[in-house]
């Protein structure tokens, strides 16, 4: 009887466990495969805070993580102004339509996992630089910055091939610790338009949207702007990429620092989101100070100095002033590993603890 009860209990536990794993796997698959169409049907009462039409679209794209290609024409005067939207429940698709309603010429298309916002007449205009047909385009295991650089060279090779018959010297740079430094991807093709390449970079990168601004004056005249003297270089910078999520949203863990100063401080002082595998972290916080009515005070600051596969080196600065005592200064580097707590006591009344923790992510 005991063996039978044990066997029944074991089967029940295994069944419940299997069901839980099955439900969890369904949730995971749904989260991974949520399409742009599904995101567009999400109901929301969200109201963009931006003013201009383009900035409102970017805000909505970032809020709901929707890759976009936004193509707008810079009018002779000012850009089309947006409007304050009413607070009501609507789908994200309806929200985007409401934003673009101030400019009836704009159209919204959804194809291949990308939302495109554009004016059909101007998008098809032969003088629109996005329609330039590139001879070839190739980026091999590069990040978005490399992909953008290769796009600029593809434009130059197409428009001025004679200039690069005997090779070229080039390079590109960008700010450190940028979310566009990952992931790496490979793209190649021939006879693609600039628009096609921007779409492909956006989809391959997975965390971006692109915005291109076409000058209205470029659509006038008898010839395209890239055939006019002295303006070819402008074509290589007529777009920009915007991340849908920044490092704090993408990071799965934080580096935390707790500081205890007897009679003065006992709290979390630093929380820095990190992505160790790509060597990225949120910008470090500024200095923090505190005081007591008795005249005691502290001044604290922390920053990331170095990152490895399983550790972070933090630079910690702490100054403590107590009435009637010599000022205490701690200015050291702490190497914090993923699987342990790093604790130092620079003075018997002071404790500094640093460690990794999982982040709690919240969906929009």
Instruction: Compute the number of structural domains.
Output: 3
Mean pLDDT: 86
User: Can you name the CATH architecture of the largest domain?
Assistant: 3-Layer(bab) Sandwich
In sequence order, what are the helices and strands, one letter per element?
HHEHEEHEEHEHEHEEHEEEEEEEEE
Under CATH, the homologous superfamily of the largest domain reads DotD protein
The outline comes out as elongated
| Category by helix and strand content | alpha+beta
Radius of gyration over alpha carbons? 27 Å
Q: β content, as a range? A: 25-35%
Task: Report the CATH topology name of the largest domain.
Answer: Phage tail protein beta-alpha-beta fold
Low-confidence stretches: 1-32, 76-80
Largest sheet: 5 strands, mixed
Topology:
Elements: H1 2-33, H2 36-40, E1 43-44, H3 53-64, E2 68-74, E3 90-91, H4 92-100, E4 107-111, E5 114-118, H5 120-123, E6 133-142, H6 144-159, E7 185-193, H7 194-205, E8 208-215, E9 239-243, H8 247-250, E10 253-261, E11 265-275, E12 280-281, E13 288-291, E14 297-307, E15 311-321, E16 328-337, E17 342-347, E18 350-358
Parallel strand pairs: 2-5, 2-8
Antiparallel strand pairs: 1-3, 4-5, 6-7, 8-9, 10-11, 10-18, 11-12, 13-14, 14-15, 15-16, 17-18
